[in-house]
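N-acetyl-gamma-glutamyl-phosphate reductase
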Amino acid sequence: MSKYKIFVDGAVGTTGLRIFDRLGQADDIELLTLPEEQRKDLSARVAKVAEADLTFLCLPDEASKELVAHAPENARICDTSTAHRVNPDWIYGFAELSGQREKLQNANRVAVPGCHATGYIALVRPLIEKGILPEDYPLSCHSLTGYSGGGKGMIAEYADKKRTEKYDAPRVYGLSLKHKHLPEMQAMTGANQPPIFTPVVADYYSGMLVSVPVPMVALQAVENGEDVAKSLAEYYQGSKLISVHSYAEMPEDNMLAANQLSGKDNLEIFVYGNETQLLLVAHFDNLGKGASGAAVQCMNIMLGREETAGLEI
C-alpha cells in the first residue's frame, strides 16, 4: 500500500511534536524527516516540502513566510502559525464553516485557525451568517486556556519547581487588546469589528472555555435562548467534531471545567442565560481542535482520508 508522505517543519515545538506523534501511529503515512544539522537549512527543508504530499508548518510567523516564499506553488501546505490566516490567497482551515470543507478538498495553502479564534468563530459566525446577530454589534469575548497554549517556554515556567506564586493563580494577558488572533476573529465571523477580547491562562495543562455574552435585545429572528441553541445545532448538523448541547443543559455541579476535553479533538457548544441575557460557550482542547487536531483534520480532508482519522473524539 502506498503511503502519504508528510513533512512536519518545526516538529520540536508543542504543536509540531503533537502532530508528528499522531501521524507516527498511522499505517498510511510516511513521515519525512531531516537530520538535526539540517533542521534550519532552508534549501533542505524546501526539498522536503517538494517531496511531500503535504507539509505542516509549525514555525514562527516570519519563518513560515520565508519557507512559503521558496516552496513550489503546487506543494500542499498547512500552516499552524498566524502568518496566513487572513490572507485571501489561503484557505482558512475551519472545515465546519459553510462551504469551507469543499474549499479545503482542493486547497494547496491552508491556514489552521488559532485556538482562541476557533471558539469565538464557532459561536459567532453562524449567528451572523443566519442574520440573528448583527455584523456591527460590539461583542466581548473571554477565553480561559491551559498553559500549554503558551508553548514550550510557558510549559517550562509552569513546571519549574521554583516558580513564584503568581503561577498559582489565573493570569489575564493580551492587556493591550491587540491579541494576534483578533484579525481572524473579525474576518472569519463577518463582523465589522473585532471583539473586546480577554484571554486568561491558568494552572492546568490543556483545555479551553471561550465565552461570549450577548443581550437578547441584540438578536434578531429569535425569541429566546432555546432558539439560539437550535440555530447553532442546525448549523453544525452532521458535523463529526462540533456538537451543540440543548439550551441551559447543566453539568452535575452547575459549573463548566475548562480541562474536561483535554486530550480530545472535538468541540462542544453550550448556551445559557435568562430572559434578557445569553452566554455562548465553546468548550474544547487548545491542543486538539485548537491546534494539532484541527491541523490533522485539515490534512485528512485535503488528502481524501476519513475526516476524523487519527483524532480523539
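thats it. The longest strand covers residues 208-215. Residues 115-284 form a domain with the Dihydrodipicolinate Reductase; domain 2 fold (CATH 3.30.360.10). bye
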